[in-house]
Amino acid sequence: MRRIILFLMISTMIVFGFGCESDGSEEQSSELPNPVRVSSYDEILATLGMTLKVPEDAENVVYQIIDIEEGPDIAEANFSLDQVECTYRVQSTSTPTDISGAYYDWTVTKEIEISYCSGEISYIEGQEGICLWYDTVPGLMYSVFVDKDASEEMLLEIANEVYIPAEDAN
Q1: In the structure, what pLDDT confidence band is assigned to residue 70 with cuts at 50, 70 and 90?
Q2: Angle at 141 between CA 43 and CA 143, to 5 degrees
Q3: 102-143 pLDDT tens trace
Q4: What does the pLDDT look like over 33-68, one tens digit per residue?
Q5: Is 105 helix (H, G, I), strand (E, B) or coil?
Q6: Are the beta carbons of 77 and 61 closer than 8 angstroms?
Q7: How far apart are CA 45 and CA 110, in angstroms?
Q8: What is the mean pLDDT of the chain?
Q9: With b meaning 16 or more CB within 10 Å and e meaning fewer, what string describes 45-74?
Q10: Which residue among 19, 40, 51, 71 sits deepest, i.e. has the most Cβ atoms within 10 Å of its Cβ?
Q11: Distance CA 60, CA 81 (A)
């Protein structure tokens, strides 16, 4: 009988949070803060000094800023291109790094050039893929991610269409 009473007391404490009560003055949330905030082309240009050109036939364009605690923020444009979802990111950095946020077991990885910038494409043929390149002149890292239909030609075409070389940005 003692075990049953002990079990019921422990169960009740667990259900009711060990007897702690809240006066409602504090919001309780187990969610982490969201570092991504919807923005606009003009805000990204004004606050981050970056241009995010999207293809002329892009649809459903959404601009965002990803707030990075220990480093420079990332400018992002999400858009649809021929029913393929694309994410284009730019970050000011002195060190080339993967800012795509896409980590897959790529079946193809190849060094490429976008304008005068060195880079790399990685993809799973017909599925997801990324193109990464670094412009040393202004110190900008770029990435383009596609969620399907990836091929070398597609990734290079999108990257060359969205990229504005530093000398042409002004």
Answers
A1: confident
A2: 85
A3: 999 999 999 999 999 999 999 999 999 999 999 998 999 999
A4: 678 999 999 999 999 999 899 999 999 999 999 998
A5: coil
A6: yes
A7: 31
A8: 85
A9: eeebebebebbeebeeeebbbbeeeeeebb
A10: 51
A11: 9
pTM for this model (two decimals): 0.78
Q: Is 161 exposed, middle or buried (0-12, 13-18, 19+ CB in 10 A)?
A: middle
Terminal CA-CA length for the chain: 81
Task: Name the residue type at position 140.
Answer: L
Query: Tokens standing for 63?
Result: 């601009």
Q: Please tell me the distance from the alpha carbon of residue 7 to that of residue 28, in angstroms, as a whole number.
A: 28
Q: Could you report the per-residue pLDDT of 156-169, keeping only the tens digit for each?
A: 999 999 999 876 66
Report the distance separating Cα 58 and Cα 61, nearest Å.
7
DSSP 49-96: -------TT-EEEEEEEE--TTS--EEEEEEEETTEEEEEEEEE-SS-
Sheet arrangement for strand 140-146: 36-38, 59-66, 74-81, 84-92, 140-146, 129-135, 117-123, 108-114
